C-alpha cells in the first residue's frame, strides 16, 4: 500500500518537474469560480473542465482562459484529456465534486494540489470520526444500534448526502417508524435500515470554519467562516407549529447557499485550537499531513461549546462567501484574500522557493 502510494507520487512529481509554468485547472462546479478567479488574481492561467449544462456559468464570468467540455466529469481520467492538461502544465485543484472520484485519483498523472490520502479519509465517516476524536475535539455521540437511541438524534443513510435520506428522531420506536417511511418512499431498501449512521443531534448555531494549512509559512490560517442555507430545514421556522404538524413536513438538509459569519471573538480560541490539533493528527494519518484548505463543520451550543460533526480535507463551497475577502483573511493579509486566491498564492510562493513538491501528495 505505502509502496504503491510512493510510486504514484513519484510518477506525478516527474510530470511536475517538466512544468515550466503553472496553469490552474478544475472541474466546473462547486467552488470553481472561486478557484479560477483566485488563479487569475495571482496572474496564473486557468482551464475549466465542465459539462454542457455548466458551460454557461464559466462562460459568463470570464475566469476560464480555456474551457474543455466533458460529457461526464469522469472523463477527466481519460488519457487523452490528461495529456492535454499535462501539456498545459495544469495543477488540478480538488473540490467537493471530486469526491466521487477520490479513490480513483490514482489513475491520474496530473498533479493534484493537496494530500489525496486525507481526502480519502474524508469520504469515510468512521475514519473521519477517528481523526477528529484523536485531535481531542468534542464530537456528537454516536449510537451503535437503533435500540440505543435515548435522546434526539440525526440519522444519516450512506449515500444520502445531506438531502433526502436524513431524519430526526428520539427513540427506537420512532426510528423504525421513520426508517420504514423511507423504505416506502424508495429512499432506502428494507435491508439497508440497519446501515444507519446515528448521531446525537446538537441543538445550536451551525458554524463552518475554513482553514488553510500553509507548508510555505508552516501555519494554520483562518480564511473564512460561513453558515449554510439549507432546504427545507431553514424554511420550517417560517411555518407555524400547528401547520407544520398538519402538513407532516420533514426537514431535509440540502445546501442551497451560504451566508458569511463573524464569530463572537472569544469563541475563536476553540476553533483555532481545534484546527491546530487536526493538523497535528493529520501528520500521523498521512505524511506530511494537511496541505491547503480544510473545513471544520460545527455546532455551537448555548453554552458556547464547539461540537464538530464533520471535516472536509479540501476547499468547501462555503468559502465562496469570502470573495474577495473575509474579515479574517483581511486581518491576516491586509489585502483581498480568499480560498481560491490563497491556493494560487501558495503555489506561486512554493514555486519561487523551490518547494512545489511539498504541495502535491
Ligand atoms: N450531529 C448533528 N447535529 C446537528 N446538526 C447536524 C448534525 N449532523 C448534521 N447536521 C446538519 O445536517 C447537515 C448535513 O449533515 P452532514 O454534513 O453530516 O451531511 P453530508 O452527508 O456531509 O452532506 P453535505 O455534503 O451536504 O455536507 C449539516 O449541515 C447540519 O445542518
Ligand atoms: Mg457535510
Terminus-to-terminus distance: 14 Å
| Fourth CATH level, the homologous superfamily of the largest domain | ATP-grasp fold, B domain
Tally of DSSP helical segments: 11
Gyration radius, to the nearest Å? Answer: 21 Å
| Coarse morphology | globular
Please give the largest β-sheet: 5 strands, antiparallel
What letter string, H or E per element, gives the SSE order?
HEHEHEHEHHEEEHEEEHEHEEHH
Q: Give a list of the ligands.
A: adenosine-5'-triphosphate, magnesium ion
CATH class of the largest domain, anyone?
Alpha Beta
Q: List the uncertain runs.
A: none
Query: What percent strand?
Result: 15-25%
From the 3D coordinates, which CATH architecture of the largest domain would you assign? 2-Layer Sandwich
**Protein structure class:** alpha+beta
**CATH domain topology of the largest domain:** D-amino Acid Aminotransferase, Chain A, domain 1
List keywords for this structure.
binds magnesium ion, alpha+beta, Rossmann fold, globular, binds adenosine-5'-triphosphate, 361 residues, 5-stranded antiparallel β-sheet, single chain, 3 domains, Dna Ligase, domain 1, 13 strands, D-amino Acid Aminotransferase, Chain A, domain 1, 4-stranded parallel β-sheet
Verbal overview:
The structure is a single chain. The model has no long low-confidence stretch (mean pLDDT 94). Helix 2 (32-41) crosses helix 11 (339-352). 33% of the residues lie in helices and 22% in strands. Helix 3 links the parallel strand 2 (45-50) and strand 3. The chain starts with a helix and ends in a 9-residue tail after the last helix. The chain has three domains: 2-112, Rossmann fold (3-Layer(aba) Sandwich); 125-138 and 203-359, D-amino Acid Aminotransferase, Chain A, domain 1 (2-Layer Sandwich); 142-200, ATP-grasp fold, A domain (Dna Ligase, domain 1), CATH 3.30.1490. With 361 residues, it is of the alpha+beta class. Adenosine-5'-triphosphate is lined by residues 140, 154, 156, 161-162, 199-202, 206, 228, 230, 253, 255, 297, 299, 309-310.
Amino acid at each position: 500500500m505505502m509502496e504503491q502510494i510512493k510510486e504514484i507520487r513519484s510518477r506525478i512529481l516527474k510530470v511536475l518537474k517538466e512544468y515550466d509554468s503553472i496553469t490552474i485547472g478544475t472541474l466546473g462546479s462547486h467552488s470553481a469560480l472561486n478557484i479560477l478567479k483566485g488563479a487569475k488574481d495571482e496572474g496564473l492561467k486557468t482551464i475549466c473542465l465542465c459539462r454542457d449544462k455548466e458551460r454557461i456559468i464559466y462562460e459568463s464570468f470570464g475566469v476560464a482562459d480555456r474551457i474543455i467540455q466533458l460529457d461526464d466529469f469522469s472523463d477527466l481520467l481519460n488519457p487523452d484529456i490528461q495529456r492535454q492538461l499535462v501539456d498545459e502544465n495544469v495543477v488540478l485543484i480538488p473540490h467537493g465534486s471530486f469526491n466521487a472520484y477520490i479513490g480513483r485519483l490514482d489513475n491520474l498523472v496530473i498533479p493534484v494540489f493537496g494530500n489525496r490520502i486525507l481526502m480519502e479519509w474524508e469520504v469515510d465517516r468512521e475514519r473521519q470520526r477517528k481523526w477528529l476524536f484523536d485531535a481531542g475535539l468534542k464530537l456528537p455521540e454516536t449510537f451503535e444500534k437503533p435500540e440505543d437511541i435515548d435522546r434526539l438524534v440525526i440519522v444519516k443513510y450512506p449515500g444520502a448526502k445531506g438531502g433526502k435520506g436524513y431524519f430526526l428522531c428520539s427513540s427506537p420506536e420512532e426510528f423504525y417508524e421513520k426508517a420504514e417511511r423511507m423504505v416506502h418512499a424508495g429512499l432506502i431498501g428494507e435491508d439497508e435500515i440497519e446501515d444507519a449512521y446515528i448521531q446525537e443531534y446538537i441543538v445550536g448555531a451551525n458554524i463552518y470554519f475554513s482553514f488553510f494549512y500553509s507548508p510555505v509559512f508552516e501555519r494554520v490560517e483562518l480564511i473564512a467562516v460561513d453558515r449554510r442555507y439549507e432546504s427545507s430545514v431553514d424554511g420550517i421556522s417560517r411555518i407555524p407549529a400547528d401547520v407544520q404538524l398538519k402538513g407532516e413536513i420533514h426537514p431535509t438538509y440540502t445546501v442551497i447557499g451560504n451566508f458569511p459569519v463573524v464569530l463572537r471573538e472569544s469563541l475563536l480560541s476553540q476553533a483555532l485550537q481545534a484546527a491546530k490539533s487536526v493538523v497535528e493528527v493529520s501528520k500521523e494519518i498521512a505524511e506530511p499531513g494537511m496541505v491547503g484548505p480544510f473545513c471544520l463543520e460545527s455546532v455551537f451550543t448555548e453554552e458556547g461549546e464547539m461540537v464538530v460533526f464533520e471535516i472536509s480535507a479540501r476547499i468547501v463551497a462555503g468559502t465562496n462567501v469570502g470573495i474577495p475577502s473575509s474579515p479574517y483573511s483581511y486581518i491576516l493579509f491586509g489585502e483581498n484574500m480568499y480560498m481560491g486566491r490563497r491556493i494560487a498564492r501558495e503555489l506561486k510562493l512554493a514555486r519561487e522557493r523551490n518547494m512545489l513538491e511539498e504541495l502535491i501528495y
